[in-house]
């Protein structure tokens, strides 16, 4: 991975989500549900939900990254886990901000695959090493990404990371 960083601003994020929505629509894919991977995927799913006129949004909480370049041994689903009955026989679009190693997306994709009619993935960024090759990608990169929602430290300090002034 390069030491250089991708810097995504909120304005560029709006452009990215809109262009991603056009790629999905141009492909003819009409999801019944958008399943966001929290936390970064929440922003992507919300934007895609509006752009694709999909009101049925679900959230899957997965913990994997613990810091810049630091991960748990494997991604872990956190409660509440979506009820598979709600996904049954639906066309699901999994939304996340980045497919880095792809391990989080693979966990969610595998969770959905046996319960849904079809599952596809949409991300803002995909890295070359990702285990999952997403159907819809705004940009490919091998850089670390500074997302506008996570570049500043938390306002509330719950893990010793410090506060901004």
UniProtKB/TrEMBL annotation:
What name does UniProt use for this protein?
Phosphoribosyltransferase domain-containing protein
Task: Supply the PANTHER family for this chain.
Answer: HYPOXANTHINE PHOSPHORIBOSYLTRANSFERASE, HYPOXANTHINE-GUANINE PHOSPHORIBOSYLTRANSFERASE
Keywords from the named record: Glycosyltransferase, Transferase
Molecular function terms in GO for this entry?
glycosyltransferase activity
Task: Please list the residue ranges annotated as the Phosphoribosyltransferase domain.
Answer: 12-151
